[in-house]
Amino acid sequence: MPIVHSPGTRVAVSLGVDFDAHTVWEGSFGFSSPSYLSRGEFCAEVATPRLLDLFRKNDIRTTWCTPTHTMETFPGSIEKILHQGHEIAAHGCRHEKIGPLEEEEERSLLDQQMELHTRYVGRKPRGYRSPSWDFSPNTLSLLEEFGFDWDSSLMGRDFEVYRPRPMHKSESGPHVFGEPSSIIEIPVSWCLDDFPALEYVSRVNPGLASTDVTYQRWKDHFDFAYDEVPNAVLALTVHPQTIGRASNFMMFRRLIDYMRSKDGVAFMTLSEICDTWKD
């Protein structure tokens, strides 16, 4: 198996936090009104301390995928996250749309991320999560060029870490895969993301789904991984401004309690999961 957990571990769980704050509204949706940006303020000022307290009480270390604009705007939050031993990974500059970028534009943005990440975190990031989980045809090779160890943006597996391959698309024949990357891919899924189900965006995303339905969906994924997949990895993605709202937060806390009740569950950062890879 490519992933080898420590003895006694059946499932490695990542509670990945996308600390987008203002950037998801401006970068993904083009919304910049004070109303939308106040939700980003809630993300940093209210929900982030709420999540940090929950993780501290449960002795859980997490990975916060953070745009550099969030680091510049809320540096005090970054200090608190680091002080509690959490990891901070790259997540774009302003939650920009990656897919349409030309290679040099994307390389320039990665240059900025490396410089600002080092300034605010004190070291270069080991991992990357693309804004909105989008890739350009050049993203994978650029991540290799910049020396990243892992990515967590793709969906080629569900509970298994893998090495992604570049794909050469053809209009008249089969698509052809290249050689496996040096990057370790820790896969994600929209099923395991709080934003589509729970975050209301006028005329874009209805959100506001039942927290009971969301809880059951996430629990079913966990149970399947626990019962059916050897050396499984479960990567959840939450956004403070979404999961930090009271009813969502209570559901999330209930899920953590359930997962902690099972033997052989290890809560790990994405870099810790990456480090369990054995070729």
From TrEMBL:
It holds the Pfam family Polysacc_deac_1. It comes from the Bacteria. Signal peptide: none annotated. The keyword Repressor does not apply. Residues 34-268 form the NodB homology domain. InterPro entries: Glyco_hydro/deAcase_b/a-brl, NODB_dom, PgdA-like. Keywords: Plasmid. Is involved in generating a small heat-stable compound (Nod), an acylated oligomer of N-acetylglucosamine, that stimulates mitosis in various plant protoplasts. Belongs to the polysaccharide deacetylase family. This is Chitooligosaccharide deacetylase.
